[in-house]
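In practice, a research group might receive sequence data for several interacting partners and want a quick structural hypothesis before committing to experiments. The following worked case mirrors that situation: the sequences arrive first, and a predicted assembly follows.
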Amino acid sequence: MVIKPRVLTPGPTALLPEAALAQAAASMHHRTDAFIELFKQVREGLKHLFQTRRDVLMFSASGTGGLEACVVNLVRPGDEVICVNAGKFGERWTKMNRTFGAKVHELKLADGQAVSVSAVKQALDQAPQCRAVFVQGSESSTATVHPVREIAALVRERPQCVICVDAITWIGAHEVRTDDWGLDLVVCGSQKALAMPPGLAFVSISEKAERLMQGVSTPRYYFDFAREAKAQKEFQTAFTPAISLVAALAASLAWVRQMGVENLWRNAAVLASMTREAMKAIGLEIFSQAPSDSVTAVCAPAALGSGKIIKRMKERHGAIIADGQDDLKNRVFRLAHLGYYDYMEALGLIGALEDVLLGLGHSFESGKALAAAQAQYRKLTATH
Amino acid sequence: MVIKPRVLTPGPTALLPEAALAQAAASMHHRTDAFIELFKQVREGLKHLFQTRRDVLMFSASGTGGLEACVVNLVRPGDEVICVNAGKFGERWTKMNRTFGAKVHELKLADGQAVSVSAVKQALDQAPQCRAVFVQGSESSTATVHPVREIAALVRERPQCVICVDAITWIGAHEVRTDDWGLDLVVCGSQKALAMPPGLAFVSISEKAERLMQGVSTPRYYFDFAREAKAQKEFQTAFTPAISLVAALAASLAWVRQMGVENLWRNAAVLASMTREAMKAIGLEIFSQAPSDSVTAVCAPAALGSGKIIKRMKERHGAIIADGQDDLKNRVFRLAHLGYYDYMEALGLIGALEDVLLGLGHSFESGKALAAAQAQYRKLTATH
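A structural hypothesis for the assembly, expressed as tokens:
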């Protein structure tokens, strides 16, 4: 049988063909007018994606590089910070801040729980010197969203504190309004909703954050915001950029711009909702208490475990879906909905999951998940 | 919403990524060792695809060019030939033969009917001087297969007659054994099961056909078999070949070779069977009395017509499916299963069709077509 390989994980995601082609065709030197022209487009596109009038910096690095850049430019040894830790990526904020000498107040949550606004408020009240709140927009390890907009409102009232958002799987899948919501540091990566390969990280920086970062002397070289900002205002990067990825990025951002970022949010919301209804219809539980639209974590039937399901999905249908991480390994499987992903593909995935689950002996009425997904899609897109 | 454009017609079909990339990367001159190396691979791959030990000629032309090549190399003005006409492409055999002066005995069939072996036998008995039987392997306008193997057995007994098969949507979707079945002239095109762009035609020629064609003086230049055979034995073409398409062809043939052509046949058979069961499950009739595995023609509900269905499929889901041709326009829609097409994509298409039909007011239980398709898939691929 013909099996098309499909990457259906919360990153890397399926490539936008225009981005793949632009990447393949890119052959230029970065200290040229051609690159300057390309990078001008990129900088405009990033503003639309982030919904900001401020500049967005680009680094040739994975998303984690973008996170580290925030910490090293903002946090001084001994600074008090609050880190929301609701999974693998929240844990990363904690570890990273400790690595650079911060005193971390960790808000540790059970897997699948979102932080409450009141818990953050309490932590802020107990640490009036707090330099920053570090949080995920979407914690993709547990497929959970945090109430970032509300947390930002709390932080906005505190002149010496900023909010720093890991928005890597949040931007382009959820409504994100950097300026309107007062998000100070926002980090994104290339291989998520932008539907392009990994290798680029993006960071937007508010005026307030810029002010607070002045004089911070935490050692940094590659990830120095001031150096990059100076170069990027001239449509250059401080160090050799990943040129082919910048070409892909320009194509992806043009695609987002053309449809409007709101449509990308809506797409993920509709496909995620379809997927959740589909899973519930065949008796599977959604793991998160505050489900993300970028990725859905589904509890595997206890008798099976997620490992078998994932293995069989790959063998039988060529689709790569994600296992749970750490403690959640073999307990949940994760289905992504972000980026270049559509209704027909979502149905294909749900149908293939039915096939795999039935084959493994999980009992339900065949076609039920698909019918539920279709019904939800019709409900959410009703024009007829 | 994100909508991925999909070509789900019986040609052009979705591109194999490896072929698309090879096409994009190809940059060579054709009178070089590099081209010779490429063309050696192509010639081996075509033998596997056609299941022949004989050479297969390649022309830079559409499939129709390959059909014409057969006529002009074989048929002398005044020759009697039998043409099976069960649709648009059978009609083409008839017109083409008449254009070059043949006396055509046309076996005209109602749309959706396959020719019977006895009808061909009778025609052969009534025309003992008959030079050739022209037939489609798969008549894609009505999604019908003819009993070509059995017709070939009749022709084999007649030393002065050959069978000439339009196998354009037949090869790679149905079992085709050129040598074992004694198929004399077999024509294929690049944009069908090979999952590459249009622009190349392939013709296999039996020893018997080669013998009969000696001395045929029907005017021809570009499509002269003898000239091409001479050049292609030296791994060259007589005229400038479509170089980028030859590079794509090499990639497609490598893919076929790797999985084995039998798996490509089986893939189409399974997906076609799924599709037929899905359509029947929601009360839609399969048009053909002898359905092809490369494409399925489905009767549109009379109240709707196929035009509306096709338009809405494109608008709402980005999928291009085919209308009926000529008299069948607005009566049937056609769904292809050949080439680089898999289970998840088939489910996506069936689900999208359900969505479109429900939206247009055709009434059935949502999800029923999908469940039928899944059940048929499980039945045909049962390993669990």
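Before designing any experiment, note the following. The longest strand of chain A covers residues 80-85. The CA atoms of residues 256 and 264 of chain A lie 7 Å apart.
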